[in-house]
Design a protein that fits this description.
The chain has helices at residues 14-28, 55-73, 85-97, 113-118, 154-158, 166-178, 196-199, 204-212, 233-240, 257-263, 269-282, 301-314, 331-335, 342-365; strands spanning 2-10, 33-36, 43-50, 79-84, 103-104, 136-140, 142-143, 162-163, 183-187, 219-225, 244-250, 287-294, 318-323, 371-379, 383-387, 399-402, 412-420, 425-429. It has 430 residues and is an alpha/beta fold. It has three domains: 2-118, Rossmann fold (3-Layer(aba) Sandwich); 136-365, pyruvate-formate lyase- activating enzyme (Alpha-Beta Horseshoe), CATH 3.80.30.20; 371-429, Nucleic acid-binding proteins (OB fold (Dihydrolipoamide Acetyltransferase, E2P), Beta Barrel). β4 (79-84), α3 (85-97) and β5 form a beta-alpha-beta unit. It is globular, with a radius of gyration of 22 Å.
C-alpha cells in the first residue's frame, strides 16, 4: 500500500467514467495522487465504480470487488470503497456478503464520498480529472430514464430522467475547452428526452447548437437516442454545423412487431424503417450506430429472420448485438418466461455480428480513395492512430496512418484512405 495514493477502477459505460473522473477530482483537490484503472492497484484508498446493467457486467463488478477485498486482506491496499450501479441496486446484499468493503455509495450519493471520508467540505462541482486522451471528453447531459422497456434495469437503478441545465453543461464544456479539449461525446441514457423534465419541452437541438457555437469546440458527437418521440430538429443542427458530427447512436433493439410489442418499445417495424430512412435523407452521409437485442422472451426464429433482413436493408455503419439477460425486477422478469435457450441466443448474436462484419467491410472499402478530417489519438510503433467524425472512441473503428511525417497527438489532419479492412481504415496525411 502506498500512502497518499488513490486508485479508481471504472467499470461499465462512459457515463460511469464521467462519475469516476469527478470522484478523482475530489481526491486530487485534497492533494492525493490519483490513478485510474492501474494494472497494479496499491492505493491507500481504492474506489470501484461498478456496473449493474446485465448479468455479465454484474459478474465483472462482483469479481473486481472480491479481488480488491483479497488485496485488502493482504494489506496491499488500504480502504476499499464501492460505488455505482451495482451498489445502488444491491447495497444491503453486498454489505452482508463482502464486509471487507469500508463504504458503499450508489449512483448519486457518491458526490459526498470524499466529504464523508475526510469530514470536511471541499467543492468540486463540474471539476474532473480527465482519464481519456486530453483532446476529448465525455459530457453527461442527463441521468435516469423514463422509458419502460421490458428488459431494462436502468430505470430501476437510476430512477426518473433528470436533465442537467443548459447553463451547467455550457460551463463544463467551456472549462474543458480552456484545458485543451476539442472533441465532446454527449451522453445520456436517452438523449432524445433531454429537457422535458426541466423545460417542459425538448431542448436537445438548442443545447447542441449552443455548444456548437462555443469557440474551440471542434467536434460534438451524440450517443444513445431513442426512435420514439425523436426530436428531428436536431438533424437541422447536425446538417448546418460542421462541428456537429454526422453521427447518431440509436439503440433500436429489434424490428419484429411481435418482439417490439413484448419489449414495450412503443414503436413499430414500419415506424422504425421510416425513422432510419429519414435520418439518412435529412443528413446525407450520416453514420448510424445501433444496438440490437436477441433472445428476448417470445422471440421466434421468424422474428429473428426479420431482424437479419432489417440489418441487410439498413446497412448500419456501426452495430452491436447482445443476448437478453433476465434482470430481476424488470417487466420481463416479472411477466415473461425466459424461454429462449442460451445456446440459441448466442447463435443469433453470432449470426448478426457475422452479417454486420461483412457489411462493415464493404462500407469501409467504399472509403478507399476518399479524404477525411482525422483527429490523432495516439502514436504506436508502426502507425499514428486516429478517427474520423464517424468514429466514436473505444467503440468504432480507427484510421491507421503511415509514419511518413511527424504528427501531433490531438491535432486534426486531412488523411487520404489507401486501404481498408473489416474494422479499420489505412491512410496517409496529405
Amino acid at each position: 500500500m502506498i500512502k497518499n495514493r488513490v486508485d479508481i477502477i471504472s467499470l461499465g459505460c462512459s457515463k460511469n467514467l464521467v462519475d469516476s473522473e469527478q470522484v478523482m477530482a475530489q481526491f486530487a483537490n485534497r492533494g492525493f495522487d490519483v490513478f485510474h484503472d492501474s494494472t497494479d492497484v496499491k492505493g491507500q484508498y481504492v474506489v470501484i465504480n461498478t456496473c449493474g446493467f446485465i448479468g455479465d457486467a454484474k459478474e465483472e463488478s462482483i469479481e473486481m470487488i472480491l479481488s480488491m477485498a483479497q488485496a485488502k486482506k493482504r494489506r496491499k491496499i488500504g480502504k476499499l470503497i464501492v460505488m455505482g450501479c451495482l451498489s445502488e441496486r444491491y447495497r444491503e446484499e453486498l454489505k452482508a456478503e463482502i464486509p471487507e468493503v469500508d463504504a458503499f455509495y450508489g449512483k448519486f450519493d457518491w458526490v459526498n464520498l470524499a466529504n464523508d471520508l475526510f469530514q470536511d467540505t471541499v467543492s468540486t462541482e463540474n471539476q474532473r480529472v480527465i482519464t481519456t486522451p486530453s483532446h476529448y471528453a465525455y459530457i453527461k447531459i442527463a441521468e435516469g430514464c423514463n422509458r419502460t422497456c421490458s428488459y431494462c434495469a436502468i430505470p430501476i437503478i437510476t430512477g426518473k430522467y433528470k436533465s442537467r441545465t443548459i447553463e451547467s453543461i455550457v460551463e463544463e464544456v467551456k472549462m474543458l475547452v480552456d484545458n485543451g479539449v476539442k472533441e465532446f461525446q454527449l451522453i445520456a441514457q436517452d438523449l432524445t428526452f433531454y429537457g422535458y423534465d426541466l423545460y417542459k419541452t425538448n431542448k436537445l437541438a438548442e443545447l447542441v447548437q449552443t455548444l456548437a457555437n462555443i469557440s474551440g469546440v471542434e467536434w460534438l458527437r451524440l450517443h444513445y437516442g431513442y426512435p420514439n418521440q425523436f426530436p428531428y430538429e436536431i438533424l437541422d443542427v447536425m446538417r448546418n454545423n460542421s462541428n456537429v458530427c454526422a453521427y447518431m447512436d440509436v439503440a433500436l433493439q429489434h424490428i419484429s412487431n411481435n418482439v417490439l410489442t413484448l419489449m414495450r418499445r412503443n414503436v413499430t417495424k414500419e415506424e422504425t424503417y421510416a425513422f432510419v430512412r429519414r435520418l439518412r435523407e435529412e443528413v446525407p452521409g450520416i453514420h448510424l450506430r445501433t444496438t440490437l437485442l436477441v433472445g428476448h422472451p417470445g422471440e421466434t426464429e421468424e422474428d429473428f429472420n426479420e431482424l437479419m433482413q432489417f440489418v441487410r436493408d439498413m446497412r448500419f455503419e456501426r452495430m452491436g448485438a447482445f443476448a437478453y439477460s433476465d434482470e430481476e425486477g424488470t417487466y420481463s422478469n416479472l411477466n415473461y418466461t425466459d424461454d429462449v435457450p442460451f445456446e440459441i441466443k448466442q447463435e443469433r448474436v453470432d449470426r448478426l455480428m457475422e452479417l454486420q462484419a461483412q457489411i462493415s467491410e464493404e462500407i469501409n472499402a467504399q472509403k478507399v480513395g476518399q479524404t477525411f478530417k482525422v483527429i490523432i489519438d495516439r502514436e504506436e510503433e508502426d502507425f499514428y492512430v486516429g478517427r474520423t467524425e464517424y468514429d466514436s472512441p473505444d467503440v468504432d473503428g480507427e484510421v491507421l496512418i503511415a509514419k511518413n511525417k511527424q504528427l501531433t497527438i490531438g491535432d486534426f489532419y486531412q488523411v487520404k484512405i489507401t486501404e481498408s479492412d473489416m474494422y479499420d481504415l489505412y491512410g496517409e496525411v496529405l
